[in-house]
Sequence to fold (66 residues):
Amino acid sequence: MLSKKFALAFGIAVVFPAMIHYGVSMFSAEPRWQDYHVSPLTESTSYGEASAEYQRKDAEYKAAEK
Fold:
């Protein structure tokens, strides 16, 4: 009888999270890697261009923050 309880508990412990994951993934899309990947500012640009790009993006961020 004890082994049946352990088997049932193990089955619930495996199946329940799988069902939750499947249910959530039906209604919510996976995050896209491109949304969270930040490319370095100095990649293939000179320091002055990277600095100007940073200042432009910072100004846009501050304007959107207000």
Remarks:
- The chain has a mean pLDDT of 82.
- The first helix runs from residue 2 to 27.
